[in-house]
Amino acid sequence: MVVAFDEMSATSDGCRPGYEILKRWLDATPPELLATRRAEAELLFRRVGITFNVYGDDAGEERLIPFDIIPRILTGTEWTRLSKGLVQRTKALNAFLADIYSKGEILRAGLVPEDLVYRNPYYRPEMAGLKLAHDIYVMIAGIDIVRVDPDTFYVLEDNARTPSGVSYMLENREVMMRLFPDLFAEHRIAPVENYPDALLATLKSVAPRSAPSDPTVALLTPGPFNSAFYEHSFLADKLGVELVEGRDLLVRDNIVHMRTTEGPKRIDVLYRRLDDDFLDPLTFRPDSILGVPGLMNAYRAGNITLSNAVGTGVADDKAVYSYMPEIVRFYLGEEPILKNVPTWRCREPDSLKYVLEHLDEMVVKEVAGSGGYGMLIGPAADKKTRDEFAAKLKANPDDFIAQPTLALSTSPTFVDAGIAPRHVDLRPFVLTGSDKVRIVPGGLTRVALKEGSLVVNSSQGGGTKDTWVLDA
Amino acid sequence: MLSRTADNLFWLARYVERAENTARIVDAANRLAAMPISYAGSSNEWESAVAATGSLGLFKTLGKEATSENVIEFLAFSQENPSSIRSCLERARVNARTVRTALTSEMWEAINGAWLGLKNFRNISHDRLRLNEFLTYVKEASVRFDGSAYRTMLRNDAFFFSGLGTFIERADNTARILDVKYHLLLPEHEAVGGGLDFFQWSSILRSVSANTAYHWVYRESLKPWLVADLLVLNDQLPRSLASCYDHICAFLDELSLAYGRQGPAQRVARSTRNRLQNATIQDVFQGGLHEFLTEFIGENGRLGQAITDQYLV
């Protein structure tokens, strides 16, 4: 096992910049007090009902995501660099989508293989040739970042469909401010509470040109049984917009309305947290009862903005991911600020051979997978599991990519045995409007609570932390 | 607001109200059942408790005997009974979760807290002490919900729809309790008196939390027609039919004002209220109390339907 870089103590004097006050405080605070605070935090979360549902788990219909009360800190300098990289990355994602759904220049230039795009399950032929109001596809991106040393940040995944987790970013901060007012007084921590405001401004900025100057926004949820329902209702509330389900909407003359107590009311922008497949039974899955018949016609007629646009999944596909450095260079003529994790595309025979030979060192992921499901972590798996996975890999090499097992950075975390380093990642949320790009400083830090574990997904036992960006 | 949201709020309020009413009915039955037979008399107290909640048909299909334990289980905890206290609180919580954006955080915490606390009351149908704690718990939860709604909600359509749910449910419950008990107590002849009746009547009042109110209003010993007058026509009593309809009409008027138009719901409610305002208890008894209440329960149901048709679909 490689020794991971610890974000608090990986220096000769045992404390990295930004962590001085926190470290002193941790050293001086008895574990009993931390335990009490953690219990208080849990009670607060439970009372407001911040829970999530785990698919395929009957026992606990609603679970609390474990929350670690020790914050993760980034200095202003670190954040400035990160956010430049995030803006660059999201610009490239949008340019790529606008291109592949129109002229396909990057494909003709031979930089990205055509079949990777056109035969991608997330590619939507319905979007080809469709001119979107502001040429923006990904208004809300959640870019997963990992770190391996003081200077190297990698993008692990671009979430360009319906990234979730921002409610935890906001609630974690609220709880921390209630529990540790003194720490907040001693630091200069950039606020995150303006996120809903930034999101609403972003959504309104991308309304169809025919919409009134104060467009009506609504948030479309699959409903209370969805794992992220809490977040949907939380955001709708903070945005001050209606939380609608498919059955609340109707399309008349290619205009989308919601059913209200005062009759149908027109909607201009739909922040949809429902996958493409379910959006419109007339266009996509006919068995979907979550969607809205006729929605795609209204969309094609330019009478409603969907956020994110339909068909963005093709850009956050793990195989397309491996081309992101080229994509950034092609559209922006710049060197990528944020690196990609070295990635072997198993669809390429040489790569496949290499991956199979080094399976015990690699992380293998399904191209279309998400949430940490269906992946192999080579070093942690036994031989039998690896052999079974190798068979799957050989049968459908196109479905997989492989990456070296990264020594993700660690952050001090309060666990049963006391304070110990645990691996973390970071999901900042990048908002792209027609006027500008907005990012609130920080994001959601996810932490793998099990010792040595690299999987931070909440569905796999990961937890979250508050993320502090110190004002320079 | 969204029709579905309004519908959820309307039913959320109804479930909470129903849970409290059922708790009161169980409480009253429990007190009667604890008395020596020569005071309480009636041997089918428990069956009448089920009837008062409008679930006698369902209870009978389950094929259980109307013993205290079976009825308490059925009314308080059974998952088979969609109107049991537990079912009501569970459904209220599902509704609340669905429309969280329309609730204030205080209301949500009241419902969510009530639901979370349910797990502390398992298998207690036979334990009277714990049962009392449970019933108190339910009443407090409902008061907390009502109170937080009253103190924290914006006075907009969300408030009006949830208020409509509360009062339509409450009117239904009061009418049923009175009907069932009255029927039971005065089968043929109108002769009233004796210790037996006294406790039965006071149990009716207790189940609508009006025992003290009765004495303040009438300053008399318990008289059946005065009990009926209090529960049907006296608009000072918060659970009387007249008072419920005052509130219902007020909420519907607010809605028509906010939306700039009115419809069948306003007309139906107004005609019922007018009847309650203009009637005397002598008129009511002349036509038969049972007939009056049956008609009222039907009308109340039709108003619920009219509200649904007009706003909630």
TrEMBL record, chain B:
Record-linked InterPro entries: ATP-dep_Glu-Cys_Ligase-2, DUF403
Domain DUF403 span(s) in chain numbering: 1-312
Name the UniProt record assigns to this protein: Alpha-E superfamily protein
Lineage: Bacteria, Pseudomonadati, Pseudomonadota, Alphaproteobacteria, Hyphomicrobiales
